[in-house]
Amino acid sequence: MPIDEYLLSGSILCGEDFDVVEGYICIRDGMIAEICEEPGRVDALAHGIILPAFVNAHTHLGDSVLKDPEITDIASLVRPPDGLKHRVLRATSTHDLVHAMRASICDMTATGTCAFADFREGGLLGVLALMRAIEAASTSGCAGAVDAVILGRPGEGKGNGEDGYDGVDEIDSILELAGGIGISSTNDYESGVAAAIAGRTRRQGGVFAIHAGEPDSTDIRDALELNPNLLIHLTHASREDLRGVAEENIPVVVCIRSNLVTRIGIPPVKEMLAAGLLVAAGTDNVMFNSVDIFSEMRFLSSLCQIDEGQVLRICTRAGALALGLDCGVIESGMDARVTVLNKDSYNLTGAKNILRSVVRRARAADIVFCSGDTGVGTGARMR
Length: 383
What we know:
- By secondary structure, the protein is α/β, with parallel strands linked by helices.
- The chain has two domains: about 5-50 and about 330-375, Urease, subunit C, domain 1 (Roll), CATH 2.30.40.10; about 55-325, TIM Barrel (Alpha-Beta Barrel).
- Helix content is about 35%, strand content about 25%.
- It is built from 14 helices and 16 strands.
- The protein has helices spanning about 75-80, 85-90, 95-110, 125-140, 170-175, 195-205, 220-225, 240-250, 255-260, 270-275, 295-305, 310-315, 315-325, 355-360; strands at about 5-15, 20-30, 30-35, 45-50, 55-60, 115-120, 145-150, 180-185, 205-210, 230-235, 250-255, 280, 285, 340, 365-370, 380.
- Strands 5, 6, 7, 8, 9, 10, 11, 12, 13 and 16 form a ten-stranded parallel beta sheet that branches. It has a six-stranded mixed beta sheet with strand order 3-2-1-4-14-15, with no helix packed on it.
- Strand 10, helix 8 (about 240-250) and strand 11 form a beta-alpha-beta unit.
- Helix 3 (about 95-110) packs across helix 4 and helix 11 packs antiparallel against helix 12 (about 310-315).
- The longest helix is centred in the first third of the chain and has 17 residues, at about 95-110.
C-alpha cells in the first residue's frame, strides 16, 4: 500500500455525535476516504481509539517566553501596553521569542492538536516571528501537520489618522500574511480605536476577533457592537449577553484553565450551549498553562456540568468550525486530522465507556499516532 494511503483501526469516534464504531478508516491523500465497520484487526498503520485531533482555538504563544510568573491581578499581568507580559515581550530578542514559540508548537502537536489560532502581539514583526517559529517546528522533526490561524495585533496606535486610527497601514501589512486581527478588550483602547481596527479589518477581508467579558462584563456590549467574527472568554456574560451573541451567531472560545488560574471565574459553558452558541476551547496564555487540550477537557468535564460528547466537540469540531477549518470530525471527505490512543495503556486498559474515558482520563502518554506521523501532509499551513 503506498504511503499516501493507509488504514487506522480500532474504536472510532465517528461523526458529530462521536458514536463508537469498531472498524477502520482509510486515509488517502490526507483525506478520510472511507470508514468501515468491520471489527477485528486489519493491516493498519496504527490500532487503538481513533478520535479527531484537537483544535486549540485561542493561544498567546509569545507568552512562552514567560512561564509560571507569580499570579497577581489579571490587568497587571496582561493588559497592554505595560502589563508584565508586554514588558517581557519588548525585552525579548526575536531569536529567543521564535525559539520559545517553536517549543510550544511542538508541544501542541505532541499532545494531539492539529490546529491553533494565535493572538500574535507585536504588530507585523510579531506575525513574522510566529511564521518563523511555525517553519522551525515543521522542519525540526518535532512537529507533524498543523494549521495555524494567525490573528495579528497592530501596534499601539492612537485615535487619529485615516479611519480614526493611525495604524491602518500596519493592519494592511499584517493581513497580507495573517488570517485576521485579534485584539484585547475595548477597555484597553481609546474611544473609537477598536471600532476603527474592526472596520479596517473587515474591509480588507480579515477575521476580526476580540477578548470580552474576562475580568468583568463591562466590555461585552461594546465588543458586540464591533460585529466580531470571534469572541474570546465571555466569562462574566449574563443570559442577556448570551442571547445577543446567539442572535449574531458569533462563535465563542472559552479558556477555563486560564480563567481559573487567574482567579477570573468559571465561564458559563452550560448556559452558552443552551443558548445555541458555538463554543470552542483554547488554552490561552502559555505563561499560565500548558497547551495541552487533554487537560482542558478534564476541567470542562468536571466543572461545567456538560456531557462528554459536548466536551469533545468543544475541543475538536467546534474549534474547527469557528476557525473555518475542515477537520475536527471523523467523516468521509474530511481532512484526516486524527489521533490514535493506545486502548491497552496502563491508563486506558479496561475502559468500558470509550468516549467518557477519552474525555476524563486520556493523556498525551496514551498517544500512539498523530496525523502527520507518516510524512503525509506534514508541515505547517498558515491561514
